[in-house]
Design goal:
Number of domains: 1
Strand content: 25-35%
Low-confidence stretches: 119-130
Radius of gyration: 16 Å
Largest sheet: 3 strands, antiparallel
Mean pLDDT: 89
Length: 130
């Protein structure tokens, strides 16, 4: 399954690119629509564990940490990081595509532009130039 986020009308849309595009809309199957995106990963390796709506991802991370701590795996529990908010779509998609990219993104998180504002400016500039 190949997944990709796109920003449309101020919302993040997650598409399944492995599905055939609709003959009517030309779009692939929509799997998620959310205002912000959360990404859970291992800080030590940058390996992506989960992504999606912040409520679901934070809940998954808390439950996973609790189970790991209960089994005595404190280091593994403390290694799970969740980043959420209006992240740039290209950064989110790189996390999905490139193994370990989440760790690199985490080091640059403070300098990343606001995901929705950057895309809005890009869409606005495209409209005025055409």
């Amino acid at each position: 399954m190949t997944l990709q986020y796109r920003l449309k009308e101020g919302h993040y849309h997650l598409y399944d690119l492995s599905t055939p595009a609709s003959r009517v809309t030309g779009e692939h199957r929509l799997r998620l629509r959310t205002d912000t995106v959360a990404i859970a990963f291992e800080a030590s390796t940058g390996a992506l564990r989960e992504h999606g709506s912040p409520l679901r991802i934070h809940s998954w991370a808390n439950n996973t940490r609790r189970r790991l701590r209960a089994s005595g795996a404190l280091d593994r529990a403390n290694d799970i990081v969740v980043v959420s908010g209006p992240l740039p779509v290209d950064e989110i998609n790189k996390c999905l595509e490139i193994d370990g990219y989440c760790r690199d993104m985490l080091t640059r998180l403070a300098s990343l532009p606001h995901g929705k504002m950057n895309a809005t400016r890009t869409q606005s500039s495209r409209r005025t130039t055409h």
